[in-house]
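Lab notes, practical 5.
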Amino acid sequence: PNTHAHTQLHCNRAAALIKLGRVGEARAACIESLRLEPTYGKAVARAAQVELLAGEWALCRKLYERLAWMGGSNAAAAQENRERAMAGLKQASDAEGYISSAERLLRAERGQTAILDLDRAILDLDRALALCPQCARVRFLKVDALARSGNLKAAVDFAAESAKASAQDKSGWLAKQAKLLYDDMQFDKAAALLRHVPTVDSLALSVDPCLRVSEAPELLLKASKLHSTRERGNEQFRAGHWASAIQAYSDGLKVDPAHFRANAVLLTNRAAACRKAGLDDRALADLSEAIKRDKRYAKAYLRRAELLAARKQPSAARTDLEHALARGSSDVRAAAHEMLSRLSREREIERHEAEFKRQQQQQQQQQQQQRQQQEWGQECLKHFPRSPPSATLQPLPRWRPLPRWRPERVEAPRCRIQPADASPSARPSQPPPRRPASAQPRLHHLSAVEVPVPAAQAQLSRSRPKESPLCLGARAVRGVR
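Output from the prediction step:
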C-alpha cells in the first residue's frame, strides 16, 4: 500500500477532528500518521497542535522542537517548518503564562481587591482557553473562579459545556456540576443530576482530585435531605405552625454543618418562625449567626434590620439596611429602600414631636413662673398692704451726676516794667486790662514787657531798693524771687 498517502489521510482526518473539538480522536489519528511516516512534517505539526489544545505543554514543546530540527524537503519547506515551530512555541509559552497568572491570583488572600483579582483571573483564563480550548485544567480553574466570584449560574453552565466537550471526564464534570448546584442551594436539580452519574466509576476528576465520583451517593443523600427539610419547614410556616417550622429548620441544620450558605438560609427562616412565635431574642441570635456564616446573604441583614427597628434601634437597623442594599437582589433592595424611607419618616415625626414637646414644656415653665410670681405678690400684700388710694406717691427725682469739681482760678496782679527814667506820676495807678493769651506780646525788648507777678512778689519788689531795668527783666524771665 501507499504509505505516504495513508499518512496524509490520517493527518487530514486529524485536522478535521480538531475542528470538531474531538481532541482525543485527533491525537489517535496523529499517532497513526507518525507511525507510518515519522519524518512527515505536517503530521508532527498536527500532533504538536493537538497537544497544545489539550494543554500538554511538555509534549507540545518536544514536538515543535522536533519540527524545527527536521527541516524539510527543500529550503522553503524547512523555513516554513521553523516558522510554524516558533509560532507554536510562542503560543505554548503564552498559554502557560496566562495559567500561571490566574493560579497566582486565585491563590491570593481574600481582601479588598479580591473581586478585582477574580476578574483578572477570569480574563487570563479566557485568553488561555483561546489558545488551548480543550485543556481540562484551564476549564476547571475557570469554573472555580466563576464560583468564587458568586456567579454560580455561569459556573454551572460552563461545567455542563465542559462535560459535553470532554468524553474522558464526562462523569467527573457531571459530579462537578452537581456539586455547584448543591452549593447554589438548588438541591432538587443537584439530586436529579447525581442520579445520572454512574456510581461504578470511582475515578476522580482529572483536574480536581478532591472530587471523586464515588462521593456522588453521599452528596445525593445530603441534597435530598436538605431539600425535604427546607420544604417541610416552609409548609409548616405557611400553615402557621411555628413550633413545627422551627423543628424542621433545626433538623435541616444538622444535615451538612459545612454548607454555610444553606445553614444561613435555614437560620434566617428559623428566625422568622421564632419572631412569629414571639421569641425575639432567639430570632436575633439566629440572624446574627446567619450573617456570621454567610456575610453575602442580604436577606439576613434585611430581617435583622426589621427586628432592630421593631425594638427601637434605628441606627443599627440602618446599618443592616445599607449592607442589604449593597449585597441584595432587586426585590431585597426594593424592600430595603422602602424600609429606609419609613425609618426616615419616623425619625422626622419623632423630631417634630420632640420639638413640640419642648415648646410645651417651655410654655408650662413660663406659666408656672407667672403663677409663682403672682402667689409671691399676694403673699407680700398680706404682710405689706398697699397705701390708701387717696395718698399720692411722688415720683423719685431723676438721678443726675454731680458736677465735676474744678479749683477756683486766682487772678494774679500784673505789673508793667518801665525804664528807670520814667517818672512815678507817669505810671498807671491801676493795671491795664488783661489781654487774651493769643494777644500776649513776646519778649522782644526789655522796655515794655508785661509779666504776671504774684502779689507777694510785687510787695517785695517795692520794699527792695531800686534796681536797673535790666536786672528786673532778667529776674522776671528766670523766675528769681
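Observations recorded by the TA: Strands lie at 204-205, 208-212, 414-417, 449-452. The two ends are 165 Å apart (CA to CA).
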